[in-house]
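Appendix B. Chain record.
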Amino acid sequence: MQKIAILGAGESGVGAALLAKAKGFDVFVSDRGSIAERYRVQLSQAQIPFEEETHSLEQIYSAQEIIKSPGIPDTAPVIQGAVERNIPVISEIEFAGRYAKGKFICITGTNGKTTTTLLTYHLLKSAGLKVALAGNVGESLAGKVLEGGYDYYVVELSSFQLDNMYAFQAHIAILLNITPDHLDRYGYQMENYAASKFRVAQNMTSEDYFLFNQDDAEIQKYLGAHAVPGTQVPFGLKNTQGAALQFQGHSISASFAGKSVQVATSNSPLIGQHNQYNTMAAVGAALLVGISPAQIEAALGTFQNAGHRLQPVGEIDGVRFINDSKATNVEAVWYALDGIQKPIVWVVGGTDKGNDYSPLLPLVQEKVKAIVCLGVDNSKLFASFSQTGLKMVETQDVQEAVQLAKDFAAAGDVVLLSPACASFDLFKNYEHRGRAFAEAVAALNQPVA
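Structure tokens predicted for this chain:
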């Protein structure tokens, strides 16, 4: 019996372990950290041997193949040891791909992956297709393959998941953008990071489709220097020459694979330029699997994005409140400010990550009427934006922040929580911050007894 060692007992590792066990492998799971209780229970019930807080190298290196968690870098000593012993090291995605019967729609990019993945899944699911949602969005692909019965798998892929994929083949691949991120894993070379992202299109044939953002400079740079397989389907907003997908007013014009159609997007709740790219990509994938424009238009209107991403959380006296707590960097806030067409009261702040706020100044001066700083140390925000002459206040209490923002706003305005900062000064994480904001809005909306 062939032995497989699995490094990391999180969602992907346990999913791979359960699939490997079902396929008749001798499986051993090793995690250098502690294993969450629910995963420990799953492994025990499946009678899969595992260890935590250590790596038993003799056990690991006795395997014919190693499946590693995406969080473990190739430079980790346990991985280096496997390479020296010529033991293949693969990802959970690579392993699951060997056993899946359906077609893969794979989405990657530095920003927008989750929204595009969820929207693509929603469009296919709404059309009645047998479709699974997996990958970086939260559930292991291996677990979904083990469930079986799916014709399509919509998979969000981080660069870390792509790195150890070799024979895996996507039938539709989407590359949204490439901006500097995780460069410590790629020798601080953008070329290496871009190459990782482009692995989403590896092994494609002319019958497969590669959708990419032709406005993105790093994508164009890579395409100019490398041959990329698959039938190319470019989409764009700025550079529309040759774009197979482009916006025309409130609709997407699509012309590829023998089709030429219009898909109205006026029902979509997604706002902002970045979401226009995400929507083009998802609509393109839906058209490629045979979903009609009418079905897509209806499904766009019922889509609910993941929480904390430009999420409407209430309206009081004509003032809309939007939770964009996931916007923990300047680029994400730029997209939020750019996408909202009403006057904004901006709630910003938290743990600064070395931010340069200057790119936001033109948008702030154009669109923002007041700034509420929600954080322990707001000195850098005051230094960056006091020159605008806008009203600026600060607080460390989210309920007070919401009340202050409401007082600054008038009917028709938007109160936007888009922090540009990490949340750890006052909250556990960005989800906690977003929930607290939404709860404060709900509390403010309660009639006084």
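Further analysis of this model is presented in Appendix C.
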